[in-house]
Design brief:
The complex is a heterodimer. The N terminus of chain A is likely disordered. In chain A, the strands form 3 sheets. A 7-stranded mixed sheet of chain A has the order 7-5-4-3-2-15-16. Chain A has a 6-stranded mixed sheet with strand order 8-9-11-12-14-13, with helices on one face. Chain A folds into 2 domains: 287 residues, 4-Layer Sandwich (Purple Acid Phosphatase, chain A, domain 2), CATH 3.60.21; 144 residues, Flavocytochrome C3, Chain A (Flavocytochrome C3, Chain A, domain 2). In chain A, helix 2 runs antiparallel to helix 7. Chain A has 15 helices and 16 strands. By secondary structure, chain A is of the alpha/beta class. Chain A starts with 7 loop residues before the first strand and ends in an 11-residue tail after the last helix. Chain B has 3 domains: 65 residues, no CATH class; 97 residues, Sandwich (Immunoglobulin-like); 131 residues, Immunoglobulin-like (Sandwich). Chain B is 2% helix and 53% strand. Chain B is built from 1 helix and 21 strands. In chain B, strand 10 and strand 11 form a beta hairpin. The longest helix of chain B has 6 residues. The chains are: A alpha/beta, B mainly beta.
Chain lengths: 461, 302
């Protein structure tokens, strides 16, 4: 457990203008997790390679930039996930890291999960160097350095910085074939001994849970910095004895900067949030356009996993609801849910399965959205997006619609929710209105924006 | 002390201070609510408390939690690595409830034909064993997807186990589709292809590339099915749209064989505006994979 005294931490506030005053040294970004840009639906817009590049260009002095691992990962369970999209994201990110002149990428478990061939493809000779002191792939295609010693000018002096990197075996489970993972406690001692007197700053890049990183900082006091790069979504900086233990958080939304003053023999840590104050870099925007076009060229939308719906039901499209529910349908047409797909088209993201999933109905299901041409009635967040697939409900309504001697009032009752269809829980909203894409979501105020009139079903003639 | 603002690191966490001003010697508390939906296992969340304390303007509270799952799968993901074609592989995923609920698994589906479910068995202790198989005659290639398990758990009616792997024969190529994406007109672009030979007796013979220049219709529609013949241009013929980096030893390929090789595919800066498509054909000495074809595409814009 983290000692309680360490749970209360002071972080320096980080106005962006102040950063260039640091004058250079080390810069750390956390797990990338395939986060190329913030979702346009989220407010505020945080991170993304376009803002990061702008920030890096604004820095004065010499900086060694370090990526803490996991080009991809995270939400493989998300709707619209296609594995090939992860690979394209990883390729775009490695291009971005290269453009931003990164010095090191520490191996994470999600990097290994992509497969050694893919890693070899992403990191050809001459690209951003891969680092790991305890992961040894057997493939001759991949070069993974056990350590790196790099020079950087800080405070007017040239410093030698030694980097070691570990991946926690606890994150890997059974390593893929051709990969050996050595416990950090075995891998680090000889390398620490080798480097500690040869460098001015010794840094451990720890792709491990924060607690494990703190443990490594305690066991290896030779490290001046321990950068923890797994599973913490917001920056944390902890001074543990004489070692700074920190994490920049995930998805490149924040950075941690370290400036070492050789005269004082000490350093300063700062955290930076890459927020909307930063312009987007034009070079990175063109990289993102290229990525989007690749999604289109490779027709990833047609490669989304599709499952049959349980219980023999299927999606029918919002148009099918309107004959019995005209007032509700008319109201729905005036909401942002109805135009969600158009919003995506305008944003140029209609070929991105991960975006499309929340702007149409049923992308991951056999009877769900396929394309605007094939399934136009399933564009937007239609009736079934909240209420579920409606085929059985319509079939039930039709079977009850036969003349039966019921009055209109009785018939309305008969056609109400007695088949169990249509009940909505606020939990269902959170599939799309999740913290990443809709951080300010609260059911009541959001419901007010789309609240439709209660309407007894209109019987068919 | 004045508490100016309380911020949380994610929308899953809400925090509210009990009072805005703390008198000297007094105390206040911050009530934090964490929504554990979308989380399992160890979770770390932070709450930032901004105050008027000049020495410590922001306190960061770190919260650790372990979110218990009603249903767990072991393993929780299947990283299968490379499987030699003809070997096949049998696997098992166990699904159980650590909370002691009486678990029922009604159904399981695999999203990829490469990994088939052979049985779902209820075993002692209330756990379910889902047996899976990569068939011996599975076609060569990378595969990935999700194993989706339907349960009677109200909290976790569906659990998903991602899987990935590759069935390899004599050779494999990455990527299996080579897209250049959006390229500005007049720019040369390069993409690399990685060929890995798994059978030491097999080598690369040659690589051929063929391009199809965009027609007006193709440009307008944004793509067309791969064709085998090139469109004849009537105007000045630009250089080959796609070509390979020249290699003196390789008859048009950048590599002349060996265990692994990288091939640079060049998109000509003369490529005309619109969608260009083509293919790369890799000839090998393999009897099972004498030809490997990779589609190529690029979109040139002004």
């Amino acid at each position: 457990m983290i000692p309680c005294a360490l749970l209360l931490l002071a972080l320096l506030s980080a106005p962006l203008q102040a950063q260039s005053a640091l004058g250079g040294c080390l810069l750390f970004s956390g797990e990338e997790r395939g986060y190329l840009e913030p979702c346009g639906c989220a407010k505020p817009l945080l991170g993304g390679i376009a803002k990061r590049h702008t920030f890096l260009k604004s820095l004065s002095g010499q900086w060694l930039s370090v990526s803490l691992g996991d080009l991809v990962g995270g939400d493989t369970l998300a709707a619209g996930h296609v594995r090939r999209q992860d690979e394209l994201k990883a390729e775009t990110l490695t291009q971005a890291l290269e453009i931003m002149n990164y010095s090191i990428h520490n191996l994470g478990e999600m990097d290994l999960d992509m497969g050694l061939d893919v890693l070899a493809y992403l990191f050809p000779p001459g690209s951003v160097p891969l680092l790991s002191s305890n992961v040894q792939p057997s493939s001759p295609l991949i070069e993974v350095a056990p350590y790196k010693v790099l020079e950087v000018v800080s405070g007017g002096k040239t410093l030698r910085v030694g980097f070691l990197g570990v991946l926690s075996p606890s994150l890997v489970g059974s390593p893929p074939s051709g990969v050996e993972i050595i416990p950090p406690a075995e891998a680090l001692p000889p390398l620490v001994r080798e480097l500690k007197d040869k460098v001015d700053i010794l840094v451990l890049l720890s792709h491990a849970p924060l607690e494990e990183s703190l443990g490594l900082a305690g066991n290896f006091p030779e490290f001046h910095l321990v950068a923890s790069g797994h599973g913490v979504d917001h920056p944390i900086v902890i001074k543990k004895d004489n070692t700074w233990v920190f994490t920049p958080g995930i998805k490149g939304k924040h950075l941690v900067l370290y400036h070492y003053n050789p005269d004082k023999g000490s350093g300063v840590m700062e955290t930076v949030t890459l927020d909307e104050r930063l312009e987007d870099s034009a070079l990175m925007l063109s990289l993102l356009d290229n990525y989007q076009e690749r999604l289109k060229e490779e027709r990833l939308l047609s490669r989304v996993e599709r499952f049959p719906l349980p219980g023999q039901t299927s999606y029918v499209g919002s148009r099918a609801c309107s004959p019995c529910h005209p007032a509700v349908s008319q109201h729905w047409g005036s909401t942002l849910h109805a135009t969600a797909y158009e919003t995506l088209l305008k944003a140029g993201r209609a070929s991105d399965p991960e975006c499309v999933a929340c702007h149409v109905v049923g992308l991951n299901y056999v009877s769900g959205f396929q394309s605007q041409d094939i399934s136009p009635d399933l564009t937007g967040v239609g009736c079934e997006g909240c209420h579920g697939p409606g085929s059985l409900h319509i079939a039930n309504a039709r079977s009850r619609d036969r003349p039966s001697g019921l009055s209109n009032t009785d018939r309305s009752k008969d056609l109400s929710l007695q088949d169990g269809y249509g009940k909505v829980s606020s939990e269902g909203c959170k599939g799309c209105h999740d913290p990443e894409h809709s951080p300010t979501f609260q059911f009541e105020p959001f419901w007010e924006r789309i609240r439709h009139p209660a309407e007894a079903p209109k019987t068919r003639g | 002390m004045e508490i100016r603002k309380v911020r949380t690191s994610c929308g899953c966490t809400a925090a509210e201070p009990s009072q805005k001003v703390v008198p000297p010697g007094g105390e206040a508390y911050v009530e934090v609510t964490f929504d554990s939906k979308n989380f399992v296992g160890r979770v770390t969340k932070t709450v930032m408390v901004d105050t008027n304390d000049p020495s410590e303007p922001t306190h960061t509270l770190t919260l650790e939690a372990f979110v218990l799952e009603e249903v767990v799968a072991e393993p929780s993901r299947l990283t299968l690595g490379q499987i030699r074609q003809g070997d096949g592989r049998n696997l098992k995923v166990e699904v159980k409830s650590p909370t002691g609920m009486e678990l029922k698994v009604s159904e399981a589906q695999s999203s990829s034909g490469a990994l088939e479910i052979t049985s779902i068995e209820r075993q002692a202790g209330g756990l379910y064993a889902i047996k899976l198989e990569v068939k011996k005659d599975s076609p060569a290639g990378r595969f990935g997807g999700d194993l989706v398990v339907h349960t009677n758990s109200p909290r976790q009616p569906i659990i998903t186990i991602p899987f990935s792997g590759e069935v390899v024969s004599d050779a494999s190529v990455f990527p299996t589709q080579l897209s250049f994406g959006l390229v500005r007109r007049g720019t040369e672009a390069v993409r690399q292809l990685l060929i890995t030979f798994h059978n030491p007796g097999v080598r690369l013979v040659r690589v051929e590339v063929a391009g199809i220049l965009p027609t007006e219709a193709q440009s307008a529609s944004g793509g067309n099915p791969l064709q085998t013949e090139r469109v004849q241009e009537t105007g000045p013929l630009p250089a080959e749209v796609f070509s390979l980096r020249s290699d003196p030893g390789g008859e048009g390929s950048s590599a002349s064989g060996g265990a692994n090789c990288r091939i640079d595919v060049i998109l000509s800066k003369e490529a005309p505006v619109g969608r260009s498509e083509g293919s790369l054909t890799i000839h090998t000495t393999s009897t099972s994979q004498p030809l490997i074809t990779i589609p190529i595409s690029a979109t040139i814009k002004e």
